[in-house]
Amino acid sequence: QLVESGGDLVQAGGSLRLDCTSPDPLEGYHIGWFRQAPGHEREGIFCISSSQNNNVNYQNFVKGRFTISRDNAKNTVSLQMNSVKSEDAGVYFCAARGSHEKHCSLFRRDWQYWGQGTRVTVSS
Predict the structure, then answer these.
(1) How many whole angstroms separate alpha carbon 20 and alpha carbon 79?
(2) Structural contact between residues 57 and 103, judged by C-beta atoms closer than 8 angstroms
(3) Could you give the count of Cα atoms lying within 13 Å of 56 in the half-sphere of its Cβ?
(4) Strand partners, 104
């Protein structure tokens, strides 16, 4: 079970942190963050491989603005969003995949477990 939190109304240029939490340990899983904007497909934007490697993968349009981190003690993976833009608005989903691969995928089809999403709204 994955639960996202932290979605809110944020002003353009501001910051927001989204958390993905589970009652179960997440360190053995790849964790990904996906975004679905109105009228668009759900797209992968950032992911982190299992704690064995903690490799990250991300879309260029979040480079330098978003970061991902794990807190294994809290079974949480967080997405820190800085310099938020209007196009960052949407529903953000976290996903998990059990894998021994070193690198995580941003393709939706590769993920097994999904949360219900949390909404990010950006005001100009």
Answers:
(1) 8
(2) yes
(3) 16
(4) none
